[in-house]
Amino acid sequence: MEFNEKESESEMEKLIGVIEKIAVSKHATVAMGVRDPDPETIRCAAAAVGKDYADVILVGDKSEIEKASRIYYKIGEDEPLDLPFEIRDTMNPEDELVSMLVSEKVDAAIRGTAKASDSLSNLKKACHINKIHRIAILLTKDGNPYFFAPVGIDEGTTTEDKIEFICLGAHLLKRLGVSPSVGLISSPDENGQKEAAEIVRTITEEKKLHIVDYKLDLEEAFEHSNYILAPNGITGNLIFRSLAFLGGGDGLGAPILTDSHVFVDTSRSAGHYTNAIMVASALSKKKK
């Protein structure tokens, strides 16, 4: 497969606009897990509705969500509260969020501020999957989008798992109209280079995808690729956090790749849930 770098750059530049357009056209119903809501949580949900990305249901303690909403909208306790989103009242948003998703009461879900371990554990059980494959959508400081994995500390631990990550991620990019170009970041030791050679051979010869091993040259990988694969989940998590939280970048959420349901993972420390709702709506199986 011949790779046209300029064409790929053009596709990636248009990617966010494409995702937004698809989200608006589908206007899915998206559930968001909520614990300890603050005005920023409310702002994100309201913004997603205001931008016509989705109908949003906040899943959590109704009294706490309403309290945070009154603070955000500056509405007194005695005044009526008319919110642009629904509230599903529960003290266990991790259970309820997944239940709503698998029972198809909603088209997609994002973790929001619900607990990560409980939410993902419930998702694995409900969807009958053994492994979680999350691919983060990262925006650099300049606003350039990239797909990045693995980001979970227990993900991407084997050669087979890395190959599966690449294949699943490539399928996701193609769904969004982007030709995948994979930049592999590999360990410079003997075992790391042996594994990298096996990954490149398999992806190039068997999967017919474009991949280059950049070893530890992260700058080159980001310059010439649209999907970056870190050596493992711990390294990937550190790279992602460094770029998103210290380097002035941003995250649009990390879709969990399953055949049956759309669940977008989010970081509790990020607070940018509007974009995650947009991604969830765009990836949902709801027809335009």
Keywords for this entry:
single chain; 288 residues; Rossmann fold; Isopropylmalate Dehydrogenase; six-stranded mixed sheet; 10 helices; 17% strand; elongated
CATH topology of the largest domain: Rossmann fold
Which CATH architecture of the largest domain would you pick? Answer: 3-Layer(aba) Sandwich
Strand content: 15-25%
- The domain count comes to 2
The total strand number stands at 12
Q: From the helix content, strand content and strand pairing, which structural class follows?
A: alpha/beta
Give the averaged pLDDT, no decimals. Answer: 91
Global outline: elongated
Low-confidence stretches: none
Name the helix and strand elements from N-terminus to C-terminus, one letter apiece: HEHEHEHEHEEHEHEHEHEEEH
Number of helices: 10
Rg, Å, rounded: 19 Å
In spatial order, strands of the major sheet run: 3-2-1-4-12-11
For the report, how would you describe the main beta sheet? Answer: 6 strands, mixed
Helical proportion, percent range: 40-55%
The CATH class assignment of the largest domain is Alpha Beta
State the distance separating the first and last CA atoms.
31 Å
Helices and strands in order:
Elements: H1 5-26, E1 28-33, H2 39-50, E2 54-60, H3 62-73, E3 86-89, H4 93-102, E4 108-110, H5 116-127, E5 136-139, E6 145-149, H6 159-175, E7 181-184, H7 190-206, E8 210-213, H8 218-224, E9 227-229, H9 233-246, E10 250-251, E11 254-256, E12 263-265, H10 273-283
Parallel strand pairs: 1-2, 1-4, 2-3, 4-12, 6-9, 7-8, 7-9
Antiparallel strand pairs: 5-6, 5-10, 11-12
3D structure, described in words:
The protein has about 290 residues and is of the alpha/beta class. It folds into two domains: about 140 residues, Rossmann fold; about 130 residues, 3-Layer(aba) Sandwich (Isopropylmalate Dehydrogenase), CATH 3.40.718. About 45% of the residues lie in helices and about 15% in strands. It is built from ten helices and twelve strands. The protein has a six-stranded mixed beta sheet with strand order 3-2-1-4-12-11, with helices on both faces. α7 links the parallel β7 and β8. α1 packs across α10, α4 packs parallel to α5 and α6 crosses α7. The model has no long low-confidence stretch (mean pLDDT about 90).
